Amino acid sequence: EMLGEVIQGFGLDELQSRVHKVKFAIRREGNADTRMQAIEETLSNIDEQQKEMHPEIYAEMLCLRSRELTKADPIAAYNDLREALKLLPDWPWAFVSLAQVLDNLHMPRGALASMQRAIEIGTGVDKNALTRGMVRLERKAADSKGPDVPPEGIEMDIRY
Question: What is the pTM for the complete model shown?
């Protein structure tokens, strides 16, 4: 049952409904190419007016795409998260995703700072699970020599 059927006056607009269906489908899709195709198609169909009206939807789709790209193209994943965080600067899920991307880019200090920021914000995240993940990142940061060195193609302007 949709909330609009239960709560009078509550309903999703066309974009919210479409994205809800896509998110539902990709959570159940085992094929990465099919997931990515659905995400790309959804992103390309969000126009500027819809992006302004629902920045959270656009940011969420960027985060979903970044999760698909984390290992294959971490620079593109980082850039998606950078754009998502410009839209929603206090969104913990984006900071958790960013921590994973930075870890994949061998930037443990940035990953650790991003994970800490997600915990500080705290809304909608499992702080205990993130704290356990931080232990691993703290070890990596302690073992790495020197500061994090961002690869070419990454503009490090995200505030943790």
Answer: 0.83
